[in-house]
Amino acid sequence: MTQDTRSQEAGTPPRRPGPAARSTGTGNPQAVKTTTPARSRREIKIVEVAPIAPKARMRRRHWIAALTFGLVCVLPTVLVGWYLYTRAADQYASTVGFTVRAEDGAQQVDTLMGVAGGRANGSDADMLYEFIQSQGAVELVDERLDLRTLFGKPENDPYFTLSADTNIEELLDYWRRMVRVLYDPGTGLIEIEARAFAPQDALNITRTIHEISAQRINDLSAVAQADVLDYALRDLEDARERVREARLALTEFRNTEQIVDPTADLEGQMGLLNTLEAQLAEAIIEYDLTSGQSGRTSSRASAIEARIAVIENRIAQERQKLGLGATGNIGGYADLVGQFESLTVDREFAEQAYVSALAAYDAAKADARRKSRYLAAYIDPTLPQSPLYPARATLLFVTLLGTFGLFCLVTLIGYSLNDRR
């Protein structure tokens, strides 16, 4: 039974054949064949799986690394910790702070003498900073306190203490370890921290440092004042010599010209000359009157004429004096007055310079009587109550950190050499 017959029996219309059935002349759709390409096979890659790793175990390099860690890191840290907490002696720190100051009076004198002055002398502070760390300061403190005995008191601490048979160079190195100097160049402040194994010893060190520093500043101030006095004394001696020479020249002029004061002598000569000229005028007038009344041959006219001749002769002599010096050298009396005035001005100037030099010398002496520069302490030497050094925890941590870094470096170098084989 075909599909159309089954459709008719079921009461449904028969299905029309599709295009493929019509083309072949039959209604069977199974007559159409389709072709599909064959699937390509996948290539299968075989992966070799390594066997399971065995259980980890200590090898020779591990034992070497562990031994190195113990020797390089653990053992030194344990030894340092044991020494710090069982053998290292306590250290007490005393502090003192000071600066170099200058007095106002010294500043004024320095300004007058042409020397720069100020409230705080930075150059003196710089020099004092270097002096405290120098061998000279160590020797001065050692003379007063016996540093070898003071720093060698703890007997069971050979590392932090000082041996009794050390030389001055070793003592200087140890001094720089135990005495810390802080200096601020901007303000000129110097702060010193001195350590010792007893509170009183630390206090004595800071006191001694303050004393020798003050003495050094006083010595420097004395040297500066001596220089100022020396300069002032030289100026005074020069001014005194100039006064002596000026007075000697004026005395020689007076002796040579035989004139004490040419100005006064000139006034006298001019007064005498004026008087003679007035008398001459009167005599001439009288002569004219007499000669007009009794004639020129009269005895009275002859007497007046003789008087006129005498007055004229005297006037000529006085005028000759005004034109000649006592030595006979021709020269005006004005030249003598000019020389005298020049010598007088030189003497007065020398005397004024001498007065100024004497005042400067007196001021320099007054300044030398007092201390122009001094050491001002802004922190008095302190007496410590509890030890601050050695910083055991800090030193132990630094030791551990350093040894661990060394261990890491050695381990890396060892593994690198092993990998290059």
Automatic annotation (TrEMBL):
Transmembrane annotation, as ranges: 63-85, 395-417
Name under which the protein is recorded: Sugar transporter
Biased composition (Low complexity): 10-25
Annotated region (Disordered), positions in chain: 1-39
Comp. bias (Polar residues): 26-38
High-level lineage: Bacteria, Pseudomonadati, Pseudomonadota, Alphaproteobacteria, Rhodobacterales
Coiled-coil region(s): 229-256
Gene Ontology MF: a single term: protein tyrosine kinase activity
Any one Gene Ontology cellular component term annotated for this protein: plasma membrane
Superkingdom of the source species: Bacteria
Organism of provenance: Palleronia caenipelagi
Keyword line: Coiled coil, Membrane, Transmembrane, Transmembrane helix
